[in-house]
Amino acid sequence: MRLRDVRRRLPVLTEALPKDKTRVLPTIDQGEVPTPRHAVWEFTLACDQRCLCCGPRAGIARPDELNTEECLRLVDELADLGVGEITLIGGEAYLRPDFILIIRAIRERGMTSTLTTGGYGMTQERAEAMVEAGVQSVSVSIDGLEAHHDRLRARPGSWRRAFGAMRLLRAAGSKISANTQINRLTVDDLPGLLELLAKEGIHAWQIQVTVAHGGAADHHELLLQPYMYLDLFDMLEGLVDRCRALGITPTPANSLGYFGPYAHKLRRQQSRQSHYLGCQAGIAGIAIESDGSIKNCPSLGGRNNIGGSWREHGLRAIWERAPELSYMRRRTDRELWGYCRECYYASLCKGGCTSVSEPLLGRPGNNPMCHHRAIEIDRMDLRERIEWVQSSTGEPFDNGLFRVIREHKDPALRALHGPVQIDEPRTARADDPFGGGRPVKLDHSPRTER
Fold it and tell me: Along the chain (450 residues), what's the average pLDDT of each consecutive run of 10 residues?
């Protein structure tokens, strides 16, 4: 028997191990364990672009990425766990020569195979091979009109190549969709971009807010301010109507929401309830990094979110027993803080998308990037903005830290009174990544508003 096929047994724990001991997966009394419907798999961190907003800071493959044999075994375990769809992402999945084999294996196990790409290096040969292997839909990342897309992707010509990739994929027989980051560069491009995407024959358009992790943590000038959500959602209402007139399904990501006057219109095709259902990381979804790290959310990493190594534990044990994977299943509104703690929707929303709030404030539970919240605060003649206070580390899925400043809408009152309230970031306790957290001690000296 080969050494890599031998996995360490996972003992049953009744209490946490001391800090100086190796962490093992405990048994958690959580009732019935849900079945993940969707897996997002970072197939490699190698990439042919250097996007400013990239969460994993893709470019170079991770050390010790899963080999082909391991990937095929993981496909089997995903199918056995009950996953219905696997989306290959990157980096760029097509930079691994075995990505066609994995697409074929996904389909042979009866799962839906989809892929997300920047499309820079898409060729006719690759497109046709993907379709022949069984890929069913490919989403091409296009962020704004040409000048802004090329700036964000840091590769001249990437916008034209992305549109070229859609044409190659469609000609090969794949369904195509698009996904777009919304930030200060791209927000005004959205109406014009939609018209261009419609001409290419996309069936769906995923829109998501740029969040403050990875590369975007170093370019926080790109991030929308919470008070900008008022104008943004007024625009999105019209874009949703235009999508449906064009026969395109609008699919707002979990970073975009959550409750408000347009919530039903934006999300009515995503769930029976037609509203935000709370973060589904570790409930309906599972994520995989290219070295086999299993985590709850494809947009997060680090010790708060990675449940363990597939090579060491296997998929089912991590899904069923790792606290990082079961966190959202056990979470309650008692863990909320700041405005979200008192919100009318607290028990259902639970602070919205964790991949938005955690990179901003160090832990989830207080999320200023919310349309409902912006409306309610606007009714008080106030507004909220985020202010950068601490740099990121330069690692994949790292983040800086921000504070949330509530202040008067009126510029004269702002100048006279200064902030009405400041929510400082919080970090989790070292011995309890999901504990109550503690405020970070930061310099309160005035900073120039961006």
Answer: 34 34 58 91 97 94 97 98 97 96 98 98 97 97 97 96 98 98 97 98 96 92 96 94 94 84 75 71 94 94 90 96 90 90 92 92 93 96 95 90 96 95 76 50 45
Q: What is the predicted pLDDT for the residue at 331?
A: 85
The pLDDT score that the predictor gives to residue 32 is 83
Per-residue H/E/C for the chain:
CCHHHCCCCCCCCCCCCCCCCCCCCCCCCCCCCCCCCEEEEECCCECCCCCCCCCCCCECCCCCCCCHHHHHHHHHHHHHHCCCEEEEECCCHHHCCCHHHHHHHHHHCCCEEEEEECCCCCCHHHHHHHHHHCCCEEEEECCCCHHHHHHHHCCCCHHHHHHHHHHHHHHHCCEEEEEEEECCCCHHHHHHHHHHHHHCCCCEEEEEECCCECHHHHCHHHCCCHHHHHHHHHHHHHHHHHHHHHCCEEEECCCCCCCCCCHHHHHCCCCCCCCCCCCCECCCEEEECCCCEEECCCCCCCCCCEEEEHHHHCHHHHHHHCHHHHHHHHCCHHHCCCHHHHCCCHHHHCCCCHHHHHHHHCCCCCCCCCHHHHHHHHHCCEEEEEEEEECCCCCCCCECEEEEEEEECCHHHHHHHCCCEEECCEECECCECCCCCEECCCCCCCCCCC
Which residue type sits at 350?
K
